[in-house]
Amino acid sequence: FPYTTLFRSVSGVAITKLEPRSAAAQAGLQKGDVIIGVNRTRITTLQELQTAMKSRGEILALNIRRGDAT
Q1: N or C: which end of the chain has fewer CB within 10 A?
Q2: Residues 3, 10: contact at Cβ < 8 Å?
């Protein structure tokens, strides 16, 4: 996610900044979303997210939590 700032939260990796024209924004992610999984693999740290993104190719299925919904 170029131009995206992330930090570790209690149960995933939260998006704290999102550039409007980034791939993440175009995919529908929003500031405040919490990434909790990539391709059905649980994500709890920024390192896990970075590893999953590098090893999965160009298409990723993300599980996110937005507000009280997942």
Answers
A1: C
A2: no
